[in-house]
């Protein structure tokens, strides 16, 4: 019943609005649209002002629907219009200002289709009117500045602030400790959904858990601000010294150009041996063991004849010195004999006697002639 009554009230007004000539209707209700930037940067907020003016005053909700664009994002600056008044051709009009924000997402020509506003108002004679006001088509050309062409993720803003808060700091951390970090990004002239997600680098020895970001948008008298809040937890898995934080956010200031903001770094020390320290310790231990093994093996080797001669001479052990000299002379004589009789059957025995080698046991092969030649040389 109520719907029927509302329908009976609205239909006559719709018929009356359609019956008004275009010239007269344009004087009763008019719409103008203006845009603040025709050559924006990709990602920059562009504001379109739609001013609706009627003779009399508005007495109902104004309805319109934003189109869906493939190359841009549309959003209302506010859920409510800015009410006012103006004078057109000497006559007073009541006005509603609706602001639509456009955020180009691709470079090139962007066509903005016309919007249709359904308005309800009372005229000068207190008669009800329902009209549909249609705006004109608009177009802008978005571009990417040269410094941004190599940067994949950025935002266009007049002000960006990065803040963070760490859990209670400690002088030294232990394996298994958990560190919590809360970060906030505040930016002007954009929507929170446009702020790119921060990429947290992988840190060996630290498990990083990132919670879903919380988005918030505020609009106050045409000033648009956006914020993202996010919580990150670090679980310490290994000892060592770590640098946490320091992430970067690129943004474009319309007057100052490319800007880069950073989160401050936080240095933490985890007691114990880090993986790198463990590797170094293993390498050093291996080198020491090899040197010790080589030294012990060297000590077990009998000293050479020359070293024995030098030692006995230094200690003035004359009987031993003379005996070693005779031994050296015999050695040279045996070597000469070996060179002359390399193919004889007694070569192996002479070789063993010259070098004081123990006699070969039965069943072991004798030295080959080729090997003997190498050793004698």
Q: Gist?
A:
By secondary structure, the protein is an alpha+beta fold. Helices cover 27% and strands 37% of the residues.
What's the Cα radius of gyration?
47 Å
- Elements, N to C (H/E): HHEEEEEEEEEEEEEEEEEEEEHHHHH
Write the CATH architecture name of the largest domain.
Answer: Sandwich
Strand-residue proportion: 35-45%
Distance between the termini: 125 Å
Note the topology.
Blueprint: H1 2-19, H2 22-28, E1 29-35, E2 46-54, E3 57-58, E4 72-76, E5 82-88, E6 91-104, E7 108-112, E8 116-122, E9 128-134, E10 138-142, E11 155-156, E12 160-166, E13 178-188, E14 206-210, E15 214-220, E16 223-236, E17 240-245, E18 248-253, E19 257-262, E20 265-270, H3 275-300, H4 305-314, H5 318-340, H6 347-354, H7 369-376
Parallel strand pairs: 11-18
Antiparallel strand pairs: 1-2, 2-6, 3-8, 4-6, 5-6, 7-10, 8-9, 12-13, 13-16, 14-16, 15-16, 17-20, 18-19
Explain this structure.
With 377 residues, the chain is an alpha+beta fold. It has three domains: 2-144, Immunoglobulin-like, CATH 2.60.40; 150-270, Immunoglobulin-like; 303-376, no CATH class. Helix content is 27%, strand content 37%. The strands form six sheets. Strands 1, 2, 4, 5 and 6 form a five-stranded antiparallel beta sheet that branches. Strands 12, 13, 14, 15 and 16 form a five-stranded antiparallel beta sheet that branches. Strands 3-8-9 form a three-stranded antiparallel beta sheet. Strand 8 (116-122) and strand 9 form a beta hairpin. Helix 4 (305-314) packs antiparallel against helix 5 (318-340). The termini are far apart. Residues 1-26, 354-367 and 371-377 have low confidence and may be disordered.
């Amino acid at each position: 019943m109520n719907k029927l009554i509302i329908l009976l009230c609205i239909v006559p007004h719709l018929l009356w609005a359609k019956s008004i000539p275009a010239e007269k209707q344009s004087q009763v209700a008019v719409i103008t649209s203006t845009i603040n930037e025709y050559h924006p940067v990709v990602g920059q907020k562009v504001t379109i002002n739609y001013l609706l003016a009627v003779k009399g005053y508005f007495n109902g909700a104004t309805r319109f629907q934003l189109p869906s664009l493939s190359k841009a994002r549309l959003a209302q600056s506010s859920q409510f219009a800015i009410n006012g008044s103006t004078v057109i051709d000497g006559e007073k009009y009541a006005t509603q200002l609706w602001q639509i924000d456009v955020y180009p997402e691709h470079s090139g020509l962007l066509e903005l289709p016309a919007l249709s506003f359904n308005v309800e108002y009372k005229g000068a004679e207190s008669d009800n009117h329902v009209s549909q006001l249609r705006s004109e088509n608009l177009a802008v050309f978005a571009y990417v500045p040269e410094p941004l062409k190599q940067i994949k993720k950025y935002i266009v803003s007049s002000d960006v602030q990065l803040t963070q808060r760490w859990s209670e700091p400690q002088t030294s951390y232990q394996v298994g400790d958990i560190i919590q970090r809360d970060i906030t990004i505040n930016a002007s002239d954009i929507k929170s959904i446009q702020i790119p997600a921060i990429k947290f680098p992988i840190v060996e020895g630290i498990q990083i858990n990132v919670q879903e970001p919380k988005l918030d948008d505020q609009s106050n008298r045409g000033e648009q601000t956006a914020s993202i809040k996010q919580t990150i937890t670090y679980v310490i898995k290994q000892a060592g010294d770590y640098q946490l934080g320091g992430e970067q956010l690129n943004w474009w200031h319309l007057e100052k150009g490319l800007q880069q903001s950073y989160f401050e770094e936080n240095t933490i020390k985890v007691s114990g041996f880090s993986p790198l320290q463990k590797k170094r310790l293993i390498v050093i231990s291996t080198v020491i063991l090899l040197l010790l093994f080589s030294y012990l093996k060297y000590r077990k080797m009998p000293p050479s004849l020359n070293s024995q001669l030098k030692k006995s001479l230094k200690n003035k052990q004359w009987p031993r010195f003379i005996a070693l000299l005779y031994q050296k002379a015999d050695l040279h004589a045996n070597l000469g004999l070996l060179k002359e009789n390399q193919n004889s059957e007694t070569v192996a025995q002479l070789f063993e006697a010259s070098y004081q080698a123990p006699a070969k046991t039965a069943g072991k092969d004798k030295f080959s002639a080729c090997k003997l030649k190498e050793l004698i040389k």
